[in-house]
TrEMBL record:
<keyword id="KW-0805">Transcription regulation</keyword>
<dbReference type="InterPro" id="IPR002577">
    <property type="entry name" value="HTH_HxlR"/>
</dbReference>
<dbReference type="InterPro" id="IPR036388">
    <property type="entry name" value="WH-like_DNA-bd_sf"/>
</dbReference>
<dbReference type="Pfam" id="PF01638">
    <property type="entry name" value="HxlR"/>
</dbReference>
<feature type="domain" description="HTH hxlR-type">
    <location>
        <begin position="34"/>
        <end position="132"/>
    </location>
</feature>
<dbReference type="GO" id="GO:0003677">
    <property type="term" value="F:DNA binding"/>
</dbReference>
<keyword id="KW-0804">Transcription</keyword>
<keyword id="KW-0238">DNA-binding</keyword>
<protein>
    <submittedName>
        <fullName>DNA-binding HxlR family transcriptional regulator</fullName>
    </submittedName>
</protein>
<dbReference type="InterPro" id="IPR036390">
    <property type="entry name" value="WH_DNA-bd_sf"/>
</dbReference>
Length: 143
């Protein structure tokens, strides 16, 4: 059965016949070619959540952000920032001075997204006792 047959109300997930890149699209993250899926992957990937949450505190320079997001490599932080910038969540602000100063900050969309992510982080951190108990029970049952 095709995806559209399985989900007859699945929205369009590609360019319209008018040649407009996105036309009047409705987006569906469950459709494999929907661009919202890539954006979601960039946001919820291993480092995206942490970068957005850190930037919620205000702008950071690259190395300060790398220190804040403990464990991220320079390469992964750079890739994550590029992806989030491309998706319109982060702004790379180059200040013309000597030496040049580059800061990263959230766009309004990035700030809204980071707020939701921080709600999720707070929920998870507040219930870590339950998570740890579940892990222990799972591990004990599997020997």
């Amino acid at each position: 059965m095709s995806e559209s047959a399985a989900h007859p109300s699945t929205p369009i997930t590609g360019p319209t016949d008018s040649g407009d890149a996105f036309g009047d699209l409705a987006f569906d993250v469950f459709a494999k070619r929907c661009p919202s899926r890539t954006a979601l992957e960039n946001i919820t990937g291993r480092w995206g959540v942490l970068v957005l949450a850190a930037l919620k505190d205000g702008p950071y320079r690259f190395n300060a952000l790398r220190r804040r997001v403990d464990g991220v490599s320079e390469k992964m932080l750079s890739q994550t920032l590029h992806a989030l910038e491309r998706d319109g969540l982060v702004i790379r602000d180059v200040q013309q001075q000597i030496p040049p100063r580059v800061e990263y900050r959230l766009t309004p969309l990035g700030a809204d997204t980071a707020g939701k992510l921080l709600d999720l982080v707070g929920l998870l951190e507040g219930r870590m006792d339950e998570v740890l108990a579940a892990r222990s029970a799972y591990d004990a049952a599997r020997g």
